[in-house]
């Protein structure tokens, strides 16, 4: 779910809110929109709003009437089927209350049948919508039909459960039960309850040892046709274990559990426990089975992928590469990391702190400190007042939905979160939606941290981690395990205590937004500044620090929160030198926790998802959970390998960059200048209404430029300040991936995926000797960074480096005062860092023995087209993207430009005017971007815009022909690529057409990568939900799996996404095989990094794995998977669309004659 638009929407259009209030607040709700001030009136006429509200109300009444009619109809049918039921009503009730006291043998068979389908769902203890089918029809009371809008149903269901989880966390069983019964009593609300909701309340009573209350909830569950789950029985047994219940009671409970189709062992295999719950359940079982032992952990499974048979074979196992740290040192680093994560945030010195303090700055800082102290008190007071008024709503009639969420943390923490947002707000302001989301997520993340502490999960992680580091430390020798395998082994051996995964307690996205909006409203109303803070001559009047204004982004009206100029000026003059970051934004100070499942890995405490996805989207996570664990092993092991690479800072380069940053920056070297260097604002008349159109345009451009400069400057400040903070430390970047399997470091600001500046200041923490060819590789790498000899052979690049050795050494010795050769290269900062490394190595007594920490890169040659050419065995295409051995690198962009030029000549001879105009203008540069992006699905429209942009850059090109020329060129480029990459275009068309048919059938496109990673495209027709808030209505765009797929996006994105999933598979295979060779390896998508010593080995592995990957029947396997998934081969009666799709999927494109083995000898495949 993404906040794409924040607009003013008509009142009374919050479907989510209306239903939510029906669920939890039938009484007067505190969240009703307050009357707006003069400046906040809605853009619609009042009568229109009233009419809209009336229509909504009538529609709502109709829906409710339909629901109640359907419910009564179902009830009548139920009575018709079972007439004696009325007489037996009292009996049935008594029977239900005795449910736990004696087993029901007759019903057991039917119950176990009804549970068979949902049994596995409980293995993950995930909430489910109970659909009790045949057995339920025969013996359960009928339930109201489920809401048609299942996404809304899920959101409301999740909201109820997260509310109950809050009461569990706050240890308020009475409140939880009152809230549950509020929903239970109403037929409409009852449809939103599933077994999980009752289980949460049972768990609270279990901790208090109240078996009677749990029995009551069991009977309530049965009365609405819900089947108890394993978690229900775990709660009962935990309670019995706490109370040391009598043997008979425990015996009855275990018998009932078996009657419901479960086994006692499953309690320990599938349930997640917190604190001492596991021990109490075990104690209860041992009351009747004194010799009962915990079931042994499942024996580790081995991945069967043909691509990794060697990698996982036990005969070929080698020791995991060691870090240059002792066990003691790694334990100390773990404690530092843990302390940082427990604090949630970290405050560090900014790199601007070296500037001398002016008297003005000292004065401004004092003023700011005084104001912040006042703001703290006023926010705290406003929060307490708000909570007090919410708590008054706790009557029988209703409940304020946000109240429990404002009680999870101490009040001081909410205040510090709000002040943190205030301190980081830019002078240009920020959209309400972004700020609300940030505030809501900060509360959620701190709540998760507290839950991990409360559940004693953190203690368990600490114990396991202290043993785990023996695998990595240089002074210990465990057996040959991968990090994931070793961690799993240690967890299995730990046995007792809490589970390492928490029960799912995620909050619905709309709830996070709602909580954030409430906090934002408190902040805006509470924070004031004296009007005369900077000018004593003005009257002393308190004015708001934050203003709510509207702005237009494209055609949408967007709500912004903007700071008052007085506040911005005080902050600017104070020139504060402290920056506060979330702990998850920092590199880790110890090796990451290895990924062992989609829920667990990366940071010690911070919640990290294995797969990144847009807010509110859950389909990826569900897909990963349903995937057999063993299928994810290769992906998890690859992410662990990338995350275990230790880094350090290149201090000399960092110091030069900081000196330029603090001295007005340098745009040519990609170091943003400060705002003080912005162009002067254009002269404008005092009365804005008299401004001319050109003056308005000039002013707009000036504002845009200053906003851009501020954004770029802050981005650089964050990166450099974090780098400076870890300048003397060794650190790690935990990794996760996007939905296609492409990997990314988790810390967002400073990592090796950054720009030239960021990459230049990173070195491997582990050093390796250069070896006989290492210095040559450093020199070739330097020339690659300059971009000067792209078309030359490697030997020629090396010779060129030796020729300009004087320039290289001068750059290294006098970077800012010498001839500055390094500044005129494609990647100047990385080139400078490389010059310094070459200087040190060449001056050492024995360059081969010189210990180098420098990463050397090898880049794929138009990697997307390489995958296409290999898939289609496309001979001409393979040559042009360097899959074939050649003496010099082939340049696909030049080849396409040449092809287009030939088409142009023919057309010009036949008198085509535009072909004649284009004479002399077709170059590699003009076609490069379009050729590069064709593989990633660029359309003719997008290609034409790219061409137009390139032609505009040529001063001599006649402007009047731009549209016609770009239109002509894009057509020719597409034709040229079609001719050169004939099989590529066939494959692209086949993928596109298949995706189109799948999406038109109302399904999303799914596939599985050759490494076993399941992928689903998350493109749905988005739907706006309007959130009514007192400040303004937020229109929050959501796209989730209950909505129809977006056919156009599903179709257009499939080819590029499929290719991205292949390039990530190739990278992961290379990473895993490099690990087996004990090498350092990291990647930036299709750019692979290692030490100079191991470049040759990495090159060999990279080629071997590309050949192995494309030797698989990739397209045939894709076709088989999709036929199985979308066309169900067994079914006789097929819909016409299924027949058409079957035909399409079965018609796999033919391949060409290219011999894939040739890649092994191609020098320029990756170079």
Summarize the structure in words:
It is found in: Mitochondrion. It is an enzyme of class 2 (transferase). This is DNA-directed RNA polymerase. Residues 78-123, 133-152, 670-693 are annotated as: Disordered. Pfam families: PPR_3, RNA_pol, RPOL_N. The chain is mainly α. Helices cover 53% and strands 8% of the residues. It contains 44 helices and 23 strands. A 3-stranded antiparallel beta sheet has the order 2-6-5. Helix 17 (359-391) crosses helix 18 (411-424) and helix 35 packs across helix 37. The chain is globular, with a radius of gyration of 33 Å. It starts with 14 loop residues before the first helix and ends in a 21-residue tail after the last helix.
**Contiguous helical run count:** 44
Unreliable stretches covering 5 or more consecutive residues: 1-53, 62-149
**What is the C-alpha radius of gyration, as a whole number of Å?**
33 Å
- Percent in helix: 40-55%
Record field, number of beta strands: 23
The shape, in one word, is globular
* Strand order in the sheet with the most strands: 2-6-5
Largest sheet features: 3 strands, antiparallel
Region (Disordered): 78-123, 133-152, 670-693
EC number: 2.7.7.6
Protein name: DNA-directed RNA polymerase
PPR repeats: 194-228
């Amino acid at each position: 779910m993404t906040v794409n638009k924040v607009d003013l929407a008509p009142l009374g259009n919050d479907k989510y809110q209306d239903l939510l209030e029906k669920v939890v607040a039938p009484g007067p709700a505190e969240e009703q929109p307050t009357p707006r001030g003069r400046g906040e009136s809605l853009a619609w006429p009042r009568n229109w709003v009233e009419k809209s509200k009336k229509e909504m109300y009538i529609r709502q009444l109709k829906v409710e009437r339909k629901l109640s009619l359907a419910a009564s109809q179902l009830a009548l049918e139920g009575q018709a089927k079972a007439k004696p039921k009325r007489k037996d009503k009292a009996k049935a009730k008594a029977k239900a209350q005795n449910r736990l006291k004696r087993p029901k043998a007759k019903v057991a068979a039917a119950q176990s049948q009804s549970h068979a389908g949902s049994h596995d769902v409980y293995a993950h203890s995930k909430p489910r919508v109970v659909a009790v089918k045949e057995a339920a029809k025969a013996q359960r009371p009928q339930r109201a039909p489920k809401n048609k809008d299942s996404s809304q149903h899920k959101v409301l269901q999740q909201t109820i459960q997260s509310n109950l989880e809050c009461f569990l966390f706050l240890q308020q069983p009475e409140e939880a039960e009152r809230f549950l019964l509020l929903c239970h009593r109403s037929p409409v609300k009852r449809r939103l309850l599933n077994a999980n909701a009752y289980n949460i309340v049972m768990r609270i009573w279990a901790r208090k040892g109240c078996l009677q209350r749990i029995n009551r909830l069991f009977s309530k569950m049965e009365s609405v046709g819900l089947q108890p789950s394993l978690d229900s029985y775990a709660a009962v047994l935990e309670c019995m274990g706490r109370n040391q219940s009598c043997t008979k009671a425990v015996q009855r409970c275990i018998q009932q559990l078996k009657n419901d189709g479960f086994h006692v062992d499953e309690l320990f295999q599938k349930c997640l426990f917190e604190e001492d719950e596991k021990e109490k359940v075990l104690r209860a079982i041992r009351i009747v089975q004194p010799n009962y032992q915990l079931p042994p952990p499942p024996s580790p499974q081995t991945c069967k992928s043909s691509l990794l048979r060697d990698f996982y074979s036990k005969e070929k196992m080698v020791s995991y590469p060691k870090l240059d740290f002792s066990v003691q040192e790694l334990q100390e680093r773990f404690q530092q990391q843990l302390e940082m994560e427990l604090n949630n945030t970290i405050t560090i010195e900014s790199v601007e702190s070296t500037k001398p303090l002016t008297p003005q700055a000292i004065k401004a800082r004092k003023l700011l400190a005084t104001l912040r102290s006042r703001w703290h008190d006023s926010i705290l007071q406003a929060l307490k007042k708000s909570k007090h008024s919410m708590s008054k709503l706790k009557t029988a009639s209703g409940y304020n939905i946000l109240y429990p969420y404002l009680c999870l943390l101490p009040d001081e923490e909410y205040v510090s979160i709000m002040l943190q947002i205030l301190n980081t707000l830019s002078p240009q302001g920020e959209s309400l939606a972004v700020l609300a989301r940030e505030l809501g997520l900060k509360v959620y993340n701190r709540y998760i941290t507290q839950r991990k502490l409360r559940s004693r999960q953190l203690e368990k992680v600490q114990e396991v981690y202290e043993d785990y580091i023996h695998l990595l430390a240089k002074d210990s020798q465990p057996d040959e395990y991968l990090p994931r395998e070793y961690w799993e082994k240690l967890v299995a051996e730990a046995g007792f205590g809490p589970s390492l995964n928490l029960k799912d307690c995620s909050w619905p996205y709309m709830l996070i937004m709602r909580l954030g909006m409430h906090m934002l409203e408190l902040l805006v109303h509470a924070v004031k500044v004296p009007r005369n803070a900077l000018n004593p001559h003005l009257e002393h009047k308190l004015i708001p620090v934050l203003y709510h204004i509207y702005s237009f982004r494209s055609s949408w009206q967007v709500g912004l929160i903007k700071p008052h100029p007085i506040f911005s000026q005080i902050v600017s003059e104070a020139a504060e030198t402290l920056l506060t970051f979330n702990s998850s934004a920092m590199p880790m100070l110890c090796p990451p926790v290895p990924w062992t499942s989609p829920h667990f890995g990366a940071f010690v405490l911070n919640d990290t998802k294995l797969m990144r996805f847009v807010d509110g989207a859950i389909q990826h996570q569900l897909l990963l959970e349903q995937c057999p664990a063993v299928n994810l092993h290769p992906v998890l092991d690859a992410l662990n390998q990338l995350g275990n690479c230790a880094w350090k800072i290149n201090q000399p380069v960092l110091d030069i960059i900081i000196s330029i940053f603090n001295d007005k920056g340098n745009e040519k070297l990609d170091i943003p200048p400060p705002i003080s260097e912005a162009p002067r604002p254009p002269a404008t008349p005092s009365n804005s209404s008299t401004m001319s159109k050109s003056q308005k345009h000039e002013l707009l451009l000036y504002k845009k430029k200053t906003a851009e400069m501020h954004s770029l400057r802050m981005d650089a400040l964050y990166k450099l300040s974090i780098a400076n903070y870890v300048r003397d430390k060794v650190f790690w970047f935990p990794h996760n991936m996007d939905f296609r399997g492409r990997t990314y470091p988790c810390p967002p600001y400073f990592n090796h995926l950054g720009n030239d500046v960021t990459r230049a200041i990173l070195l491997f923490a582990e050093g390796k000797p250069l070896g006989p060819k290492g210095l040559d590789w450093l020199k070739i790498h330097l020339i690659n960074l300059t971009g000067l000899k792209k078309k030359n052979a490697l030997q020629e690049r090396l010779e060129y480096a030796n020729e300009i050795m004087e320039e290289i050494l001068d750059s290294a010795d006098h970077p800012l005062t010498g001839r500055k050769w390094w500044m005129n290269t494609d990647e100047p900062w990385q080139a400078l860092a490389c010059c310094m490394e070459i200087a040190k190595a060449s001056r050492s007594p024995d360059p081969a023995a010189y210990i180098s920490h420098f990463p050397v890169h090898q880049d794929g040659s138009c990697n997307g087209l390489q995958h296409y050419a290999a898939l289609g065995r496309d001979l001409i295409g393979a040559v042009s993207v360097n899959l074939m051995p050649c003496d010099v690198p082939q340049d696909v962009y030049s080849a396409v430009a040449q092809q287009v030029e030939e088409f142009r000549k023919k057309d010009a001879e036949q008198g085509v005017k535009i072909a004649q105009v284009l004479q002399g203008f077709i170059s590699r540069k003009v076609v490069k971007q379009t050729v590069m992006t064709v593989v990633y699905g660029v359309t003719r429209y997008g290609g034409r815009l790219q061409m137009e942009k390139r032609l505009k850059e040529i001063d001599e090109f006649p402007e009047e022909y731009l549209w016609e020329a770009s239109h002509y060129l894009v057509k020719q480029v597409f034709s040229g690529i079609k001719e050169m990459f004939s099989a590529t275009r066939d494959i692209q068309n086949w993928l596109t057409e298949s995706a189109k048919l799948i999406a038109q059938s109302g399904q999303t496109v799914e596939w599985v990568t050759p490494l076993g990673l399941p992928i689903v495209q998350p493109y749905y027709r988005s739907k706006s939900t309007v959130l009514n808030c007192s400040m303004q209505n937020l229109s929050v765009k959501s796209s989730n799996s209950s909505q129809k797929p977006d056919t156009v996006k599903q179709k257009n994105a499939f080819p590029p996404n499929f290719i991205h999933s292949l390039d990530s598979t190739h990278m992961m295979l290379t990473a895993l095989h490099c690990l087996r060779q004990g090498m350092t390896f990291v990647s930036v998508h299709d750019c692979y990094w290692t030490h100079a010593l191991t470049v040759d080995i990495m090159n060999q592995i990279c080629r071997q794995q590309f050949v192995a990957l494309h030797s698989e029947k990739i397209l045939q396997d894709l076709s088989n998977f999709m036929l199985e998934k979308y066309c169900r081969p067994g079914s006789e009666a097929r819909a016409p669309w299924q027949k058409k799709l079957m035909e399409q999927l079965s018609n796999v494109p033919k391949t060409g004659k290219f011999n894939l083995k040739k890649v092994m000898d191609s020098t320029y495949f990756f170079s």
